[in-house]
Amino acid sequence: MDVLIKNGTIATAEGSYKADLAIEKDKIAAISRNIEGEHGKVIDASGKLVMPGAIDVHVHLQLPFCGTVSADDFENGTKAAACGGVTSVIDFAIQKKGETLIDAVDARKAEADEKVCVDYALHAVPTDWGVNTAAEMEKLASDGITSFKMFMIYAKEGMISDDDALFSALETVSRFGGVVGVHAESVRVLDLLIERYHNEEDMKKYGAFCHVLSRPNFTEYEAISRAVTWAEATGGKLYIVHMSTGEGAEIVSKAHERGVKVFAETCPQYLLLDDSVFRKKDGHLYATCPQIKSKKDADRLWEGLATGDVSTIATDTCTFNTEQKAMWKGDFTKIPFGLPGVETLLPLAYSYGVVNNRLSLQKLVQTVSTNPAKIMGMYPEKGSLAVGSDADIVIFDPDRQIKLSHKDLQTNCDWSPFEGYELNGYPDVTICRGKVVAERGKFTGETGFGKFIKRRPGYDEL
Amino acid sequence: MDVLIKNGTIATAEGSYKADLAIEKDKIAAISRNIEGEHGKVIDASGKLVMPGAIDVHVHLQLPFCGTVSADDFENGTKAAACGGVTSVIDFAIQKKGETLIDAVDARKAEADEKVCVDYALHAVPTDWGVNTAAEMEKLASDGITSFKMFMIYAKEGMISDDDALFSALETVSRFGGVVGVHAESVRVLDLLIERYHNEEDMKKYGAFCHVLSRPNFTEYEAISRAVTWAEATGGKLYIVHMSTGEGAEIVSKAHERGVKVFAETCPQYLLLDDSVFRKKDGHLYATCPQIKSKKDADRLWEGLATGDVSTIATDTCTFNTEQKAMWKGDFTKIPFGLPGVETLLPLAYSYGVVNNRLSLQKLVQTVSTNPAKIMGMYPEKGSLAVGSDADIVIFDPDRQIKLSHKDLQTNCDWSPFEGYELNGYPDVTICRGKVVAERGKFTGETGFGKFIKRRPGYDEL
Amino acid sequence: MDVLIKNGTIATAEGSYKADLAIEKDKIAAISRNIEGEHGKVIDASGKLVMPGAIDVHVHLQLPFCGTVSADDFENGTKAAACGGVTSVIDFAIQKKGETLIDAVDARKAEADEKVCVDYALHAVPTDWGVNTAAEMEKLASDGITSFKMFMIYAKEGMISDDDALFSALETVSRFGGVVGVHAESVRVLDLLIERYHNEEDMKKYGAFCHVLSRPNFTEYEAISRAVTWAEATGGKLYIVHMSTGEGAEIVSKAHERGVKVFAETCPQYLLLDDSVFRKKDGHLYATCPQIKSKKDADRLWEGLATGDVSTIATDTCTFNTEQKAMWKGDFTKIPFGLPGVETLLPLAYSYGVVNNRLSLQKLVQTVSTNPAKIMGMYPEKGSLAVGSDADIVIFDPDRQIKLSHKDLQTNCDWSPFEGYELNGYPDVTICRGKVVAERGKFTGETGFGKFIKRRPGYDEL
Amino acid sequence: MDVLIKNGTIATAEGSYKADLAIEKDKIAAISRNIEGEHGKVIDASGKLVMPGAIDVHVHLQLPFCGTVSADDFENGTKAAACGGVTSVIDFAIQKKGETLIDAVDARKAEADEKVCVDYALHAVPTDWGVNTAAEMEKLASDGITSFKMFMIYAKEGMISDDDALFSALETVSRFGGVVGVHAESVRVLDLLIERYHNEEDMKKYGAFCHVLSRPNFTEYEAISRAVTWAEATGGKLYIVHMSTGEGAEIVSKAHERGVKVFAETCPQYLLLDDSVFRKKDGHLYATCPQIKSKKDADRLWEGLATGDVSTIATDTCTFNTEQKAMWKGDFTKIPFGLPGVETLLPLAYSYGVVNNRLSLQKLVQTVSTNPAKIMGMYPEKGSLAVGSDADIVIFDPDRQIKLSHKDLQTNCDWSPFEGYELNGYPDVTICRGKVVAERGKFTGETGFGKFIKRRPGYDEL
CB under 8 Å to A36, separation ≥6 — which residues? Predict the structure, then answer.
């Protein structure tokens, strides 16, 4: 065998047990109580958890936005992923007006292919629905892109997919089993409220908190409710990205009871922070879209992860450093939205989920690895410790105590929304397709090693 | 290795993949893409599913009832289990008046130990709640009996646990993580309705259908609702045995939303038959308690299995042959209640669940094996194909076509409620703790091989 | 005309308007903008509300209980009613073991007839269900007693109607449109909890608060849920007396959605007080059954009145003075349960409902007069200001400010649970069947004037 | 007195009783058991129901639409109203682009004032939301127009109020207690589906049924759900006009539980017909917007009227005769939408509601008269038989048997959607503000008699 991981506790979506695990080339070749013999490399995992590598299905690397570009490019962003125990990421290929969706994918692949350090895939993002779009989606699906993403907002920015496009896209994926992700916010009321607070007096008075004032919970949950209605009407599978409200979880819960094919994703920022951050002096740094909501929302989202109302944790990584964020100059509509995140996903979810008894270990594996793989059509190659699966593995040390500092991270970011957070556990070794790509938080792989993941239609239920 | 299963499709609660599986002594020792070397026995599982052995947590072997004894004793009943792919069963130790609960367990063990052919455990059944019962339950738990069962009916028979006893038992298990199973029917209204139909005219007119007339759905779901209230009030874990009504599934679903620790079990008879059987000439044969309900209930129960409202399928096996059943002589209150079942659990659930697209393969494994093991406190030794788990395995042939006939079965029963049912798949080899105990439906193990399973507190959520 | 009420604001269940109202003999004879001519008596109601007399459908006058008799007998209790604007009361005829239900009614009538000062009716209370009880109920209904009451508790006291009796009673009333009232508490768990706290140590430590500790909300709402199930199963109409929990209101709300015929009553003590009263030095005085719950429950009950989940406010009047209450001597199981109340029903409901914006004036009239009359089968003779209706009228002064003191009341009680409460409004004149029976809180009628009300089947929905 | 109605049964929103009713000038002056003396006119109402005149809050008289004008103008339309027992109607003043809302109202008033034969009011309809619109709404409210109507569809026609305008309008009315009516359909998906069926092949194949195919239930209920969200967010009162789906009733029911201020209206066509009419040869005649749905929807709407989920029945009268309807020439997008209706509202609701036991008499009065008056801010002048109220009265003969034929009606329509329907009851005399305006279905009033009704803010709950 090429790599042997000995004496660890294998932790899967089903449960945990002690065993050795052997890798041959890029695949898991054996799981056994005691594997002996010749091996290229032996890793002692005593006292450690051996989990399928985390999968972050929501990252925006080197994204042009607000006149700048997000600070983690495909290279450094995927290095950060590796350091944090993430072995696959999914980024976005956003269609430009006039361009075909297929062109958008090809262009984005060209940006990524030579740089990526772990495996990656792309969601195609239609922004210009036309007579050929459905056919392009079917073509992309046959080429391994089975997930799509639509913005229900960004009308002025020309990226919106309004109800007719969203409905059509859901109809389209219902034919081949794909999935439509949505950024769900109510565009018209949201724009009205943004406009309302976009004046000197309020911005002076409330600063970055205008971001909160202009986005009450209903701007998210109305849009979720609407998208769920279209999913139910069409039979198309829906994936709600970065869900931030408790009401959203409630709507998904009720939709599950009715048998609607819908999954929801949330992010560490919605689970661990609350909107009081926007009252801080540097509150603008925390601006994401949608914004962080209240403690009560966070509680409902944790509960949703435990009960299945929320299926995945991803990060919506879109790194902007303090200099980039400073471009806002007091105008909350000009803040580059986004936070670093892929690197801290797993240790935060472990420390504040498992250690704090919010999630069982099994649920953690499900929400950061197995569920994303199943929903996005790459299970069991990814998201599983089964024999024959890709050897995407994180050896996680539950005894490592770290106080989080941006200085210790790989990400190109000079601050962290979780600065000073106590971590009770950290990735020790990250293995991507059989190759060790990070050790104790340091990247040890090679640029361009990552491969584009061709995907199939994903699961309808988990 | 002692046994090597080659080329099969490993099917677990999480998903499926192709791999070889090796057994050393009584444990699963390795799962590997390709296992070579010396082995005591090699089984070719090409084209077959390799699943954790089914676990039937609800059987009544050699049960004295209605002046007779159920026709499958511990020996033949567990042989039948083995033939059907079931590697563990849980029977019941029912307290007699005046006897301690511990005595009841010891007595039942004595009946079973030398006879059992697969592993077994016992639920202790308090029927005489007293000042010492809680302490006895705690003592039993420390000896590996962590599940209890209570009858909400059978007042005249002296087996009832009324609300105060049930409440007390739930309080008790809440202290150590045990679980209380309940037979949930509303005793007073039920007895009223039985009395109402228990007259010559109605019995002449309706025959065995009186059993249906006297047990409307509300006699079950009121009791479920009440038991759930006590579980919620005490924090004690509740397990609803043989749930037969759709309304029951609805109540459990709502309880899950509120975070109540409650699980429900249903049985093949409630999923595959409907109450029209009681209008048949030999309708009395089908009498169980509770009785089989309507097609609509069956649909809701299947849906419940898919969505998690119902967690397990067990059989409530209590075999009575036609001669025993004939004792009723037209009086529906004198029918020995019970059906054969342990042997056909897995092929029926596969054929009518997986093949008919009611359940994913993954859900099947969960409901007949992994969930029962987790709830009843014997996971991951049982219910799992993990390395280190007991080598309780069924190799299932999905291509075998059989028309079910009681003549081909091991059970001591001269009829079957599922006579003539088409089976699309059947167990090929059953392995219990590393030993082949059945092949192609014939018992090949040895009497007394089965062991008593000492259990821990089970899972609170799945 | 015999009586003319001029210049008042007529306030009905539908709305309000200014008009004169004339009475001829015992009936409302005219409502007119301006009634002129000869009249026996003219009352100026300028600035006042002219409402249908309140109807208190839940009083226990001269009730033998705990070795004493409730301190307001039929005479003084109905005088107090008159003083408080209540023109009809319904008391209870409780069957003794061995006695027929009809005998019980006759005996109770004999106690009341010569004493009552306002109109009255009786609920018949079966406590000894037998083969003839259903027939007796039908007989009583034809004699004008269409409502029945059952205790789900008081097993030791021999007054319980267990599920079979309750089910049978609901079946019975479903045949003729009657209604079954229930005191809903879960007898077996309740008795277990009472027993648990019934020891010297706890009683010393918690005093009267043991009454709260032994009756958690679930002891009420489980019983409500069960009774609703029987009502739904039988089609019989159910009336939940003295509902004290918010969960109860929720259960009724859901039952209404399913079309179940069920109404709920609450009382001023559950709306205005909370269980902290039992921590007071004289906490035992407040003991009723069920006990007063939390502020949160009160809020939900107010909301229920506004939305229709709760249909009526009655008082459960059962007066015990401090000497009688003192019989408890520290043992919470020996407190005579009950509070004075009929006299303060209307001013409390007005002051804390209408003035505090919890209820519209229209809802007030509905809940204290029109709904009780409709549910109990005496509308439109009672509960209405329609022409032809009985001239049961209260002229209410919304400008009268009073601080409540038991000293100013008619009731034979030397304390009040609402002592010191600010009243914003008080009855000015009470008219029963055309006769002025009270003025400004003083009784002016005559003993024995009240008549027994023969009732019909009531409304199924409001 | 000017008019005396003798011996009738007074039927109000609260209940019924026998009495005489006298009118002085334009007001109800007295209700009395027996009114004697001198009277201008005496009407014998023996055996008849005396009800408050019906109020149709949704009519479109002489509406320019599809290049034609609806066939009942203000004169004939209000004559038809009078003949059918309707004493008040509310029509619409639809803003034109560039015009102020106040101008629109003035222009519409000018069209109506000299023609109307019963009283009328106007809903103002903003279609061009701008910086002054909110102020105009407040101005109109102070002039007696407290209700507004918005179209969530008709984007191409330039009449749409999108989410931002609807949200703003609800915010506006929340300040003064007004109400916003909405035509709730999901514009973008609806237009997509219309476009989809708008091709020669489908139109040839399905004819007028394309109208059904292009408007699945979700096109209505998604919009209702959205509007309710905005109502809940703003605290503004919402009135859903012509609700046609059962799901809509469900959404309103849930909103009521949450305390949202929302009312729903349905129409006879949604209660009595089903979408099979569009398969008839002359199916295009039945085209309204939204279209008639299924029998199941009708059942849920009837249930909603009984339980309060639906508060009013109005007609959406917009008369087009067969010649006008013929303009469609096979293109379902060119059918003038609308049906005659004001004249048959009351007899249909009585015959198919009360006689068929779908509604109590009391509920009928509530839904066609009292509730509309309360919601629209004209109670108790309108919608009530109280002394002091406007003498708007219909004397209804419950014994009159009529087979409905358009030939017998006042409306300018040469067909009826309810042709041949059996009516069990019909208006005998209609009185508007004290003046008899119709007798036995024939108009007897005078043109221009009707007055514009100045309204106040309406009720928040019923």
Answer: none
Q: Contact C369/C345 with Cβ under 8 angstroms?
A: no
8 Å CB contact of A14 and B12: yes
- Nearest chain D residue (CA) to C374: D15
- Encoding tokens for residue B163? 């609300």
Do A349 and A313 meet the contact criterion of CB atoms below 8 Å apart? yes
List the subunits that have 3+ CB pairs under 8 angstroms with A.
Answer: B, D
Chain A residues within an 8 Å CB radius of D230: 189, 218, 222
Mean pLDDT across chain B: 97
Least confident of A392-406, B328-342, C135-149, D32-46: D32-46
- Span C131-144, mean pLDDT? 97
Alpha-carbon gap, residue C204 to C216, rounded angstroms: 20
DSSP string, A271-329: HH--GGGGGSTTGGGG--SSPP--HHHHHHHHHHHHHTSS-EE---B----HHHHGGGT
Which residue from A346, A429, A348 is spatially nearest to A393, judged by alpha carbons?
Answer: A429
The per-residue b/e assignment along C314-337, b for 16 or more CB within 10 angstroms, e otherwise, is bbbbbbbbeebbeebeeebeebbb
CATH architecture of the domain D53-375 equals Alpha-Beta Barrel (3.20)
Task: Tell me which chain C residues have a C-beta less than 8 angstroms from the C-beta of B218.
Answer: 229-230, 232-233
What's the rounded Cα separation, in Å, for the pair D172 and D181? 13
**Is pLDDT at A109 greater than 90 in this prediction?**
yes
Contacts C17 to D, Cβ<8 Å: 380, 384, 386-389
Helix axes of B217-234 and C217-234: crossing angle, nearest 10 degrees? 170
Q: Within chain A, what is the greatest distance between any pair of CA atoms?
A: 73
- Is residue C435 within 8 A of residue C453, CB to CB? The reply is no
- pLDDT tens track for A5-63: 999 999 999 999 999 999 999 999 999 888 887 888 999 999 999 999 999 999 999 99
Give how far the C-alpha of residue A24 lies from the chain's centroid of Cα atoms, to the nearest Å: 29
Chain-centroid distance of CA C310 in Å reads 13
Question: CB of A170 within 8 A of CB of A234?
Answer: yes
Stated as kind and residue range, the H or E segment containing A50 is: strand A49-52
DSSP-based three-state secondary structure for D234: helix
pLDDT (mean) for C120-130: 97
| Helix intervals (H) in D318-453 | 322-325, 345-349, 361-365, 371-375
Instruction: List pLDDT tens digits, range B151-198.
Output: 999 999 999 999 999 999 999 999 999 999 999 999 999 999 999 999
Q: How many angstroms separate the CA atoms of B402 and B299, rounded? A: 24
CA-to-CA dists, residue B101 to B91, B96, B182, B268, angstroms: 15, 8, 17, 30
Closest C-alpha to D449, from D438, D461, D435: D435
pLDDT digits over D93-122, tens only?
A: 999 998 999 999 999 999 999 999 999 999
pLDDT at D340 over 80: yes
